[in-house]
Amino acid sequence: MTLAAIREDVAIIDALLRDIADRPVDLTDPDWPSKLSASAPPAEEAGVAAEAAAALTALLDIYESGDEAARDEVRRIFRAHRAFSWGVGLSLTGEWPSAAAEFRRRLVHVSARDQSDDPRDDLMVIWQLCESARARGVDVEPIVRAVAGISGEVDHLGMGSTRLLILRGLERH
């Protein structure tokens, strides 16, 4: 599958997810957290879970194996399609060959997204991923450094580039 074809698929999935992504959450409802966690994942609710998973897998494969131009294009796709970026994630129950492989893929996903609307959220995810991997016996440093090496260097929102945010995963919290 070419990047152009993937971009078209992502645009369609993004359009289908937009209403879900923009749906307000009533924070005055004391049960909002349980209602939110009980709801179906956005791509499943939109009826595009299989297509979204395939597009995400293709994007991350290209991001990891491609050259800098391909990685830049993948970053642009994620930034242009915010509902897709928000609503499509890696499976929580996927079969991974190892804890290290899962950690790397999840960190690559953070890198490819090249920052959400609030990089503090990304930093919290990075720290959580690193701590979880450490608890599972993964040597995170070489993986963090490798993924940082393919990460974007643009500071989109004043908190540093994605490369610098990824490297902050080496901090202990």
In short:
This protein has 173 residues and is mainly α. It has helices at 3-22, 32-38, 42-45, 49-65, 68-80, 82-87, 99-113, 119-135, 140-149, 162-167. 34% of the residues are buried.
Keywords:
173 residues, 0% strand, mainly alpha, 10 helices, 2 domains, 66% helix
Structure, explained:
The chain has 173 residues and is mostly helical. It folds into two domains: 89 residues; 82 residues, no CATH class. The protein is 66% helix and 0% strand. The chain has ten helices and no strands. α4 packs antiparallel against α5 and α4 crosses α7. The chain is globular, with a radius of gyration of 16 Å. It starts with a helix and ends in a 6-residue tail after the last helix. The model has no long low-confidence stretch (mean pLDDT 94).
Ordered list of secondary-structure elements with their pairings:
Layout: H1 3-22, H2 32-38, H3 42-45, H4 49-65, H5 68-80, H6 82-87, H7 99-113, H8 119-135, H9 140-149, H10 162-167
Helix pairs in contact: 1-4, 4-5, 4-7, 7-8, 7-9
User: Total strand count, please?
Assistant: 0
Strand-residue proportion: under 5%
**Please, what is the average pLDDT?**
94
Shape: globular
How many helices?
10
Largest sheet: none
